[in-house]
Amino acid sequence: MNHEFMEALDELEKDRGIDKDVLVDTIEQALLTAYKKNFGSAQNVRIDFNPEKGEVRVYSQRRVVDESDLYDNFLEIELAEARQINPKYELGDILENEVTPKEFGRIAAQTAKQVVVQRIREAEREIIYNEFIEKEGELVTGEVARVSDNKKVVYIRLGKIEASMPETEQIPGEHFKAGDKIKVYILEVKKTNKGPQIVVSRSHPNLVKRLFESEVPEIFQGIVQIKSVSREAGSRTKMAVYSIDEKIDPIGACVGPKGTRVKYVVDELGGEKIDIINYSEDPAEFVSASLSPSKVVKVEVNEEEKSALVVVPDYQLSLAIGKAGQNARLAAKLTNWKIDIKSESQLNDEE
Description:
alpha+beta; 12 helices
């Protein structure tokens, strides 16, 4: 408990933001536990840790009681006996005697060091947690640290911490090796006993949204808005966009000069197809646009049930539905409407 140790506490407060008073309180509690463990005292004791002098003293505590109430000599002292020590003592006061063991200094130093080391770890974890909780829902670039033996989890190094990308958050068919630089979406940041746990994703729809935000200045500026995104990772994404400025074409802004902006996103996602459509407050228009690239003859909407009957030309039916129903499925997710697709022939037969 020398002067250097005290200087170290000052540095911790300055460099790591660890409150010195809180650290001193923590050390005192740890010293109390260490004293009882090593000296088996059943007494009530108080630890006095003087940060300025680097001294540790142990005091036994006994409550001043009336003679008729005396029950435990270790914990209590009669009023008459207490007043022999100091006439000012009254009932209920606490009388203290120093009981610092000679060998307690070494134990105190070891205990204090352990507390400080543990507190540094906790502070670092807290700093990392605070840093990443603010990035939850954001796009970051990381480096692949390793891939689990069963290939189901990819661990991404993000500065001082490793994030995990479980199989469910990976793009099907993507493979990584240690050292690869990749962009990921921070899905969740949790506090655990072992420190912050960060889960990242490449399959989440918001990854596409964040990629476009980083690439399209009009989106970053708020002129072009991404209203909704539906995605089947590794295969296809649909994104509805809207411009608050009539002079700016939202789809054109996202596609970019000679398609450079959308190409950047497609390349980042390993060739995933992206349909960019115009958002509309008119449900019929929005549902019709959502089925792009299919052409639509007409849309009948049911506002109450939030469902729509879409009629397409006969030769466009398979395109509208898509392979294994993907186009219709993504359109329904994008619009949040139930969509029933029929060809003109099917509708005429029913009528």
